[in-house]
Amino acid sequence: MDASTAVRRTAIAYGVLAAIVAVVVTAVLAIVGLSLWLGLILGVVVGAALAALGFLRADSLALNAIAARPMAAGEMPKLENLVEGLVIANGFRMPSLYVVEDGAPNAAAVGRHPRHSALVVTTGLTESLRRIELEGVLAHELIRIRHRETLVGVAAGLLAGHLPRSLGAALGARMLEPSASVLADLGGVELTRYPPGLAGALESMASDGRVVKANPRAYRHLWVNTPDDAMIEPEFSLGARIAVLHEL
């Protein structure tokens, strides 16, 4: 997915959210006796305001939902050095770094723009992976940030988590590019020039079996290793992604 497609899909998503809120507010005000036109105007205003607030606060909502906190400078020097090396070598913007205190090895990213992005790792990720494997995972996440997939992913999670379940999950799934995870894998190994690194990382995650504890279903699709029973299921399983990497 290119950046323009991500922006367009996200705009449609927040437009749908605004329209649903406007309809609900209009209906409620009509029930209490307000004129239809005045209720419609107020509904549109409230819907637009909530959609704008959702856009601005979506990243914070996602980070809070998965219990991520800002990483202190020097807290994870190996990881920080790897991110800085990838950023400098490939012309990325440096994302904010966040950590989730959890032994399950996993990583995620959020951000409405590369200038406003956050890369999230669990403590278990740095403890479980070798340096070259960790670099592969970080490269995968930086590719997702550059292509604005984090913008779409967080918006999809917001819809899935705050609209009626079936409607939110369906709308969220339609927003995402089905092959996004595989394309991010391929983009990541293009940066590191070492496919076995990311393949080994994914294999380690699969064999570990632990799942992040702070794990709301609406945001599970954000993780590199998507936990089971996500509201928005990935198109490609972890095993299929590993197989693709082994073919390179």
List keywords for this structure.
four-stranded mixed beta sheet; 8% strand; alpha+beta
Please provide a written account of the structure:
With 248 residues, the chain is α+β, with helices and mostly antiparallel strands. The chain is built from ten helices and four strands, in the order H-H-E-H-E-E-E-H-H-H-H-H-H-H. It has helices at residues 3-31, 36-65, 77-90, 123-128, 131-146, 149-162, 165-175, 180-192, 195-208, 238-247, and strands spanning 69-70, 96-100, 107-113, 116-122. Strand 3 and strand 4 form a beta hairpin. Helix 1 (3-31) packs across helix 2, helix 1 runs parallel beside helix 6 and helix 5 (131-146) packs across helix 8 (180-192). The relative contact order is 0.14. The mean pLDDT is 89.
Strand elements, count: 4
Strand order of the largest sheet: 1-2-4-3
Largest beta-sheet details: 4 strands, mixed
Low-confidence stretches: none
| Helical segment count | 10
Element string (H = helix, E = strand): HHEHEEEHHHHHHH
Radius of gyration: 19 Å
Structural class computed from helices and strand pairing: alpha+beta
Chain oligomer state:
single chain
Kindly report how far apart the N and C termini lie.
21 Å
β-sheet strand percentage: 5-15%
Give the mean pLDDT: 89
The backbone outline, from C-alpha atoms, is elongated
